[in-house]
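Hey, I'm writing a tutorial for new members on how sequence and structure tokens pair up, and I'd like a real worked example in the thread rather than a made-up one. If someone can provide the structure for the chain below, I'll link this post from the tutorial.
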Amino acid sequence: MAKFKRILLKLSGESLQGEQGYGIDVKRLNEYAQQIKEVADMGVQIGIVIGGGNIFRGLTGAGKGFDRVRGDQMGMLATVINSLGLCSALQAIGQKTTVLTAIRMEPIGELYTKWKAIEAMERGEVVIMSGGTGNPYFTTDTGSSLRGIEIEADVMLKGTRVDGVYTADPEKDPTATKFSEITYDEIYNRGLKVMDLTATTMCKMNDLPIYVFNMDIVGNLKKVMEGEDIGTLVHN
């Protein structure tokens, strides 16, 4: 039995780079697809939001002279490219998948609504929700919080390259220790960065727990669904 019935899986665009350092690494993409199908085969309803940082990040573009709104719109399109790539990888291994977009973009994907997403998940399809919130000045972290709340997910699974939340950045501080679980209030008080402040506040206010784990290790997604303690649970 899976620990959760319906999940929102947040994937980092940067992780899709794999060892290439840019774009989409097909090996990493296929590993993600296999892990997702494994969990879908357990009967779990899956919604996915992917970042676009492997292609273009609006905030970085703004720092280089891009208009912020245009830069964020380019970032939204980057998330659509990643979503189409993951959709293709999933369909290639026999997993039914739907891409919904936050801005009208037929025939690339249908326009997102909560009800379309839930109906597709209940039919056994993996639903990839792309284009962020459809608005500038909001990150894909915030987009994933919004979608997770809307689709009434049991949990947001934040797949990163780090295996949880630490007292400090473990890549910079070798003395950093990992939390097995931590409250939203403690995240604020300690000044820890799980997601951006808007996204974290939305999850806290709407009682959506976040589970942070390392998605880049093949098999970890299934371990989370089986209840293994391999990451950090953030909750009220």
